[in-house]
Design a protein that fits this description.
Helix content is about 75%, strand content about 0%. The radius of gyration is 20 Å and the shape is globular. The protein has about 325 residues and is mostly helical.
């Protein structure tokens, strides 16, 4: 339940969604005015209607769903590790999911299995990171994440080189790309998103408790270790399906949770989780709209834009958290 003082913020986000979706539908190889957009949608021109409904619209929905998956998983990961820069991309979970998705490509499996193999690799890696994080400082956690990402990235690069002429598709995918959006892929994302959000929100109160420390959580009857493992596994599911259909889109899980906490001035996960989900979708929709129009007709990989936004913020947070190193 959203607390009453935040209804205005929720309404503003809803209006922003309507405006951004309308603008995104109008933008493309041929820019349309809102009047022409509705004319084509409800007119007799079947070709233009198909371009909008089968080309632009599924990409818009896919950007929103992937943004929601990345932002919500980022909020959960930060809470589980109790540090401000434990983003799935930075600590290597996204790299593990990418490795699994590339394996699925090499095995010539269907789209859905990209997410499955990505989930298996990301979940195993998450458990590994969680096991060592209890004995590691923030600096050590970052080093492990960077080193492991590089290690898995080396395998991914090798496979990309091995594939040969078709490797350009993987290179473009690794930079973050929503150009292959379709209603089928959208349907593949809806299930994991609903499952993850329901699980995250069901344990919102327990998640608030473990922020106070494992010992305090134990005194209140919460098995912090088991809950953290379960949350990491479900978070890995969210990241793996996002990576499977969009490639590596960095820093969404870092930027949005911090923006939400600063905006709401509240760390209660009953608020943070739904607002991160909503703002994550809106943020990635805006980034994708910019990416596919700023150099039109060339479409810029969306991962480049999110990195441009996220890297300075990550640097600021890392420097701000130096007292923990």
């Amino acid at each position: 339940m959203i607390f009453k003082p935040y209804y205005f913020v929720l309404f503003a986000i809803f209006i922003a969604y309507i405006i951004c979706i309308l603008i995104a539908l109008c933008l493309g190889d041929e820019n349309l005015s809102p009047v022409n957009l509705f004319k084509y949608l409800f007119g007799d021109d079947e070709l233009l209607r198909t371009i909008i409904l089968q080309g632009r619209f599924p990409r818009i929905i896919m950007a929103i769903l992937i943004g929601m998956l990345l932002a919500s998983s980022g909020a959960i990961t930060q809470s589980v590790f109790s540090n401000p820069i434990a983003d799935p991309y930075i600590i290597g979970i996204a790299a593990a999911a990418t490795f699994g998705a590339v394996l699925a490509y090499l095995l010539n499996l269907g789209d859905f299995y990209y997410g499955i193999l990505g989930f298996v690799c990301a979940a195993l890696f998450s458990l590994f990171v969680f096991k060592i994080s209890s004995r590691a400082s923030l600096a050590t956690l970052l080093i492990i994440g960077i080193a492991t990402s590089s290690f898995l990235g080396a395998f991914t690069s090798f496979f990309t080189y091995y594939i040969g002429e078709d490797s350009f598709k993987i290179v473009a995918w690794l930079m973050g790309n929503l150009g292959s959006a379709s209603w089928l892929r959208v349907s593949f994302l809806i299930g994991p998103l609903i499952l993850c959000l329901l699980y995250f929100y069901a344990f919102k109160n327990e998640l608030n408790i473990i922020l106070c420390g494992d010992e305090e959580a134990c005194n209140l009857g919460v098995n912090a270790r088991k809950l953290k493992i379960n949350l990491l596994i479900i978070s890995s599911l969210a990241v793996s399906f996002a990576v499977a259909f969009s490639g590596l889109i960095a820093f969404v899980g870092l930027i949005i949770p911090h923006a939400v906490r600063l905006m709401l001035k509240n760390y209660n996960n009953a608020l943070v989780i739904p607002f991160c989900t909503l703002l994550g979708g809106l943020f990635l929709l805006i980034c994708d709209s910019i990416a596919r129009t700023i150099l039109a007709p060339i479409q810029l990989p969306i991962g480049i834009l999110t990195s441009l936004f996220g890297a300075p913020i990550f640097l600021y947070l890392a420097l701000s958290a130096r007292r923990f190193l």
